[in-house]
Amino acid sequence: MHIDKFKVEEWFNKYEYWAKYDLADTCVDSLSVNELLEIAKASDVEEIFNRKLNYGDIHGSERLKMAISSLYENQEVDNITITHGAIGANQLVMHSLIERGDKVVSIIPTYQQHYSIPKSVGADVRCYVLKEENNWLPDLDELEELVGQDTKIICMNNPNNPTGAVISDDMMIKIARIAEKSNAYILCDEVYRGLKHEGNPFTESIADIYDKGISTGSMSKVFSLAGLRLGWIAANRDVIDEVNHQREYNTISVGILDDYFAALAIENKDKIIERNIEKVNTGKKILTDWLDKEQRVHCVMPQAGTTAFVGYDIPIKSTNLCAKLQEETGVMLLPGETMELDGYFRIGYGNNFEQLEAALGIFSEWLKKI
Ligand SMILES: Cc1ncc(COP(=O)(O)O)c(C=O)c1O
């Protein structure tokens, strides 16, 4: 099966291992097992070390699925299946629901899976491109026109990577109405749901507001536990049955240690999310101060997540800008071209604040010379 190169991952493979200042990372300061145990004050941890490492519960433990269901309004244990990260969740949904010739609307910029997987199975993929002047939010009339009456699935990401834009609950309901006219599914990648910077960190989930809404999530961003490689799908029973049927071929189960630590983390979600919101707001403040001073860049400030999508006024392609910057200074950014939008770069601000501040200073000096 042919599939396009995953541009973001390729960039990481080529540049991350020698970056002196990694501003491309999208996680919030990852937790160690000890830090997680400290936060959770877990008393039953001996039990997990004595457990035999068999396949465990095939579709994920009841305890984990109960914890995940607490992140939603209406999703019960039976509406959830456990996957290998959100990357596994997205892939399973798309391979379960999309066939050759199906019309798929993908809202970009987004994680490349959302258009390259449908394209690889021969779907008719139409990309709806978000614009900075609309605060990176969809224009609903334009979206409705593109979706029409014959779309099988809308693939999207809320809160958005790379822009940090948040689609309001009200707008999400309107998008669901657009999908309904076409009887379309909505796959909403919600890996950053739980990291809204102000107010309730959780936006409404598409799975809670639309019967054909499918939510994918994971431990990577909101819970700072990317190393667990654990994600999930929340959707109606028919979708979950279909996904589980596909899942037999590529997952069997996730590791029981991952399942256990994920449950523990979600059971302590308030403490972990409070920690992480504080961190992203610290990083965002450093970024805001830099953006205020830096004349050659512009940015609609992110409302959630860990990344900002920054535009620049220099006539150079974003891949060249980022490559040159890293070669000359060691500062790593992610070029917008890897997310199909030139003239921008993505910056992660959830980590290493001293590094972030130092790297932004170095970047400013470099910008003066270019
Ligand atoms: C929008 C989005 N979806 C999915 C993923 C993959 O997440 P996971 O680590 O849970 O597989 C990422 C990772 O960066 C992402 O940004």
Order of helices and strands: HEHHHEHEHEHEHEHEEHHHEEHEEEH
The description of the largest β-sheet is:
7 strands, mixed
The computed structural class is alpha/beta
What is the rounded Rg? 20 Å
CATH architecture of the largest domain: 3-Layer(aba) Sandwich
Strand content: 15-25%
Question: Could you write a compact summary of the structure shown?
Answer:
This protein is α/β, with parallel strands linked by helices and 370 residues long. The protein has 14 helices and 13 strands.
Commentary on this structure:
The protein is an alpha/beta fold and 370 residues long. It folds into two domains: 7-32 and 271-369, Alpha-Beta Complex (Aspartate Aminotransferase, domain 1), CATH 3.90.1150.10; 44-268, Aspartate Aminotransferase, domain 2 (3-Layer(aba) Sandwich). It contains 14 helices and 13 strands. The chain has helices at residues 7-15, 33-40, 45-50, 62-69, 85-97, 113-120, 140-147, 169-181, 206-209, 237-247, 256-267, 269-293, 318-329, 353-369, and strands at residues 21-22, 80-83, 103-108, 124-129, 153-157, 185-189, 213-218, 231-234, 297-299, 307-312, 331-332, 334-335, 344-348. It has a seven-stranded mixed beta sheet with strand order 2-8-7-6-5-3-4, with helices on both faces. A four-stranded antiparallel beta sheet has the order 9-10-13-12. A hairpin with a 7-residue loop joins strand 9 (297-299) and strand 10 (307-312). Helix 7 (140-147) runs parallel beside helix 8 (169-181). The model has no long low-confidence stretch (mean pLDDT 97). Bound molecules: pyridoxal-5'-phosphate (PLP). Pyridoxal-5'-phosphate is lined by residues 26, 85-87, 111, 157, 161, 189, 191, 218, 220, 226, 231.
